[in-house]
UniProtKB/TrEMBL annotation:
Catalyzed reactions per annotation: Exonucleolytic cleavage in the 3'- to 5'-direction to yield nucleoside 5'-phosphates
Entry's family note: Belongs to the RNR ribonuclease family. RNase R subfamily.
UniProt EC number: 3.1.13.1
Gene name of this polypeptide: rnr
CDD domains: S1_RNase_R
Compartmental location: Cytoplasm
Protein name per Swiss-Prot or TrEMBL: Ribonuclease R
One Pfam family recorded for the sequence: OB_RNB
Record bears the keyword Electron transport: no
The UniProt record lists the keyword RNA-binding: yes
Basic residues bias (residue ranges): 1-18
Chain intervals for the UniProt region annotation (Disordered): 1-22
Enzyme class: hydrolase
Length: 735
């Protein structure tokens, strides 16, 4: 009897405990749901439905739990018996990164305000688009992926309201399908707002309206570019997509044309005269804007004097002029596959400022006295006048060194030897040797790619690079040392790499069979250089170089006198390319100001200019990459139908990126097209794993692929594995 009684009491206690656990779990779920949907109100029936509560006991417990939460102050109730969370969210201002059609991330302006980016579902974006500045409400609790989640409350500032896209016309209405990959909405256009655009033409469209509740924004065509697929149309599309100007405005162009090309004797007298010293320029064969020249002479004491002479652009481009305003707005020249979009009008870039041979030119110079071991004995910085004796193309100058004959071959040879010694010292001091692969296309008169070649960097390229780096370094150090870094100046800085990123990169390198030791932080550059030497000429060279660069911090312009990790310089600036970079003009202005005894100006104004210049630099790089990608897609659409050797350059949950070894073009094999198995993404190890076969596709794998589709609008190349025997090859499709 006693045992039965004990068992009964035990079961009774267990049931009480079970009910207690169930109630606590349900309370937690209800509170978490309301907290995660801050600002919204739900009645008990809606909560039961949202939480998918099905058993009658739990359903009956919802109202009592809500009453307890109300009494404890965790929730509030309105007169209609709707409940909401009382927990305070945080409100953050940030920028939208619209990564895919389903959700975006908001990157906080102040990283300290939130632990990482905030995930916002597409339905909660309040019509925000990529790049928009928004105010977002962050939910008090983390989402199921461990990330902060929230919703946009307002769009503070649109990043852009103009897009490039292809027109699709139906009998009653039309849409523009944007080229921009992060614009996931087609734009509705009334037939009367097409500006005469026809089906499948490329246009620039401006957003005019996006009413709440409408799935798509409305816009009107403001410029018709032409038929999609034509070279000129596609290049103009890229220019418009990145907000690059189509022509130079009249006012600054007129100012440039009005500038006299005469150099007065008074101006020459105010400068150090180098016109009698042997001087030459070395540039690409097709260059017209020569903004640097080198002079060379042997001094009476046996040392060597090397002058780095830079076009004195700020002599011609004066503050508060239309020329200055336009140069600042552009901030950089942009180099697309078939053209240059210059920062300065042609009258300046190819004429007055260009250091053309056999002409007197005004320059800003950094002149070095070097011993035979390339040690800098002393240097001088100031305004000069030069007269270039010879214009070399890189190939010509290299040939003179190789053959030990031709114009200035002795001077070129000595300069080359000095440059090699300077370069060795730089690497011994900790500089990183990034020799990235550059692809150049050979185009016919219509812009069709006939072939591509990998640009080869020879000694002559490195010669010019070393002397330009030396001048940039000494100018930065000269200003920093004048007043212990307290004078406002424009520096080019590069932070030390993040060790977590480097650790990830180390794992990538190992998959290619290369060791990359990062245990000693002080020897990171040494380990990187060893790796870069190992991969020279190997199929994985381009992939690993790009992965290494992505693991590094981004270089930027700033008034903060920080160092440059990649170059191993304590201080560095950009002084040597004022024809094509606005920061170099800023440096020239500040440098001259200090040389004239001027006091340090307000740093904030110059910092804003630095930020603007860094943003414009990124825009230019993105546009240049887009133009190269367009030609790669077009090239592969015309290439021979065959199987190509490739290397897996990236793995994501939606596909595998493969770089074709022969052409350096990258395409994707979509997971949905891999029908031999169901593949799951292993993010930690950056690989796809077949659920049945356990076949692994990993970064660095050597594969064979074939092209199945190219899309010029989206600038994508679709591939498939050539050794996939479970399916027949698809017919190639091209747009």
């Amino acid at each position: 009897m006693g045992r039965k009684s004990d068992r009964k009491n035990s079961n009774k206690n267990k049931n009480k405990k079970g009910h207690s656990n169930d109630a606590a779990n349900l309370t937690r779920r209800i509170l978490q749901f309301l907290d995660s949907n801050y600002g919204e109100e739900f009645n008990s029936k809606q909560i039961i439905k949202k939480l998918e509560i099905r058993d009658s006991l739990s359903k009956g417990g919802v109202e009592p739990i809500l009453s307890k939460l109300l009494a404890s102050g965790h929730v509030s109730k309105n007169p209609r018996n709707y409940y909401s969370s009382t927990k305070d969210p945080s409100f953050i201002i940030g920028t939208v990164d619209f990564v895919n059609p389903r959700f975006a991330f908001v990157i906080p302006d102040d990283p300290t305000e939130n632990d990482g980016d905030i995930l916002v579902k597409e339905a909660d974006l309040k019509q925000a688009l990529d790049g928009d500045k928004v105010r977002v409400m962050v939910n008090p609790l983390k989402g199921k992926f461990g990330k902060s989640e929230g919703r946009v409350l307002e769009v503070i500032e649109r990043d852009r309201d103009e897009f490039v896209g292809r027109v699709e016309i139906s009998p009653r209405f039309a849409f523009v399908v944007p080229d921009f990959k992060k614009m996931h909405k087609d734009i509705f256009v009334h037939r009367g707002d097409l500006l005469g655009a026809e089906h499948n033409q490329k246009v620039i469209i401006k957003l005019t309206e996006w009413r709440e509740g409408d799935k798509n924004p409305t816009g009107k065509v403001i410029r018709v570019l032409g038929q999609a697929g034509l070279h000129e149309v596609e290049i103009h599309s890229i220019m418009a997509e990145f907000g690059l100007p189509f022509e130079y405005p009249e006012a600054p162009d007129a100012e440039a044309n009005a500038i006299s090309d005469k150099i007065t004797a008074k101006e020459i007298k105010a400068r150090k005269d180098f016109r009698g010293i042997p001087t030459f320029t070395i540039d690409p064969a097709d260059a017209k804007d020569f903004d640097d020249a080198i002079s060379y002479q042997v001094l009476p004491n046996g040392n060597l004097e090397v002058g780095v002479h830079i076009a004195d652009v700020t002599h011609y481009v004066q503050p508060k002029t239309a020329l200055e305003k336009e140069a600042y707005n552009r901030a950089t020249s942009v180099y697309l596959v078939d053209r240059t979009i210059p920062m300065l009008p042609e009258r300046l870039s190819n004429g007055l400022c260009s250091l053309r041979p056999n002409e007197d030119k005004l320059t800003f110079s950094c002149v070095f006295e070097l011993d035979i071991e390339a040690n800098v004995i002393k240097h001088w910085i100031g305004r000069t006048a030069i007269h270039s004796d010879r214009r070399f193309a890189y190939e010509e100058a290299q040939e003179n060194i190789d053959n030990q004959s031709g114009d200035f071959f002795e001077e070129l040879t000595i300069l080359n030897n000095l440059a090699k010694k300077i370069r060795k010292k730089r690497f011994d001091h900790g500089a990183v040797n990034f020799e990235t692969v550059e692809v150049k296309f050979k185009l016919d008169e219509k812009g069709t790619p006939l072939g591509l070649m990998v640009k080869e960097r020879k000694d002559i390229h490195k010669l010019i690079e070393e002397f330009m780096l030396l001048a940039n370094k000494y100018v930065a150090e000269f200003i920093f040392k004048k007043n212990k870094g307290n004078d406002t100046f424009v520096y080019r800085t590069h932070d030390s790499p993040d060790m977590d990123r480097l650790d990830t990169f180390s794992g990538f390198a190992k998959r290619f069979g290369h060791e990359f030791d990062i245990e000693n932080e002080r020897k990171i550059s040494e380990a990187l250089n060893k790796l870069m030497d190992e991969i020279q000429g190997k199929p994985e060279q381009n992939v690993l170089e790009q992965l290494a660069i992505r693991s590094m911090a981004k270089a930027k312009y700033t008034t903060e006198p920080k160092g440059h990790f990649g170059l191993a310089f304590a201080h560095y600036t950009h002084f040597t390319s004022p024809i094509r970079r606005y920061p170099d003009m800023m440096v020239h202005r500040l440098l001259d100001h200090y040389l004239q005894g001027g006091k340090s100006p307000d740093a904030e104004e110059w910092e804003q200019k630095c930020v603007h210049s860094s943003e414009r630099e990124k825009r230019a790089a993105d546009a240049e990459r887009a133009s190269i990608k367009y030609k790669q897609v077009e090239f592969m659409s015309l290439a021979e139908v065959k199987d190509y050797d490739g290397i897996v350059s990236g793995v994501t949950e939606w596909g595998v990126f493969v770089e074709i070894t022969e052409t350096k073009c990258e395409g994707m094999i979509r997971v949905q097209d891999m029908e031999d198995d169901y593949y799951e993404f292993d993010q930690k190890n950056m690989r796809l794993v077949g659920s049945k076969t356990k076949k692994m596709i990993t970064l660095g794998d050597k594969v064979k692929v074939r092209v199945v589709n190219t899309d010029i609008d989206r600038r994508t190349i679709d591939l498939e594995f050539a050794d996939n025997d479970n399916k027949k090859p698809r017919a190639r499709a091209f747009r």
